Amino acid sequence: MSRIGRKPIVIPAGVTVTVDEAAHTVAVKGPKGSLNSNYHPLMTVKVEGNEVLVTRPNDEPKARSLHGLTRTNIANMVNGVVNGYEKKLEIVGVGMRCQKQGSNLVMNLGFSHQVNIPDTEDCTIVWQDPNHFSVTGIDKQKVGQYAAEIRGKKPPEPYKGKGIRYAGEVVKHKEGKAGKGKK
Length: 183
Known about the structure:
Belongs to the universal ribosomal protein uL6 family. The protein has about 180 residues and is α+β, with helices and mostly antiparallel strands.
C-alpha cells in the first residue's frame, strides 16, 4: 500500500467536500474560497464522516502511482481553502526593485523598460519592500506556476547572482574568467 495514499484526509470545521463519482470530480469549499478538480477513474474517493478516503482497485504500477497523487491533490485543495499558499520571491541586484501600483507589480530589472505583472483571478501579489514580494492564492499549483513565470522574467545569473529568486534559494556561483598569466 502507498503510505501517503492510505492516510485519511481530515476535513476541518467549516470545510465541505463533495465527491461526484460519476464525473470523477472533487469539490472543496472553505472560508477562503472553493476549488474543483478531476481525479483518475481508477481511483475511488469517498467522504466518511469528517474524513476523505482514497482507495485503489489493485496493485498495478499505474494504480499505485495514482493512489498517492490523488490523495495529495485532494489534501492540497483542503489545505488551500483553509490556509492558502504563499511563494516568497526576492530581487537581488543593484538598481533592481519593484513596487505595487494598483493591482500591478511594476519591476525595474535592468531592462530598457519596466516589467508589469498583474494580479490574476487566482493569484495575488503581495508587496513587502522594494526587493521582496510574494504570490498568494488557494490553489497550490497555480501559485507555484505564477511564481515560476515571474521568476522567469529575470532568473538569477550564475556569476553575480543578480535576478529574481525564491526566498532562501541558493544560486550556485560560477568562477569568472581566469586572470592572464595563470596556468
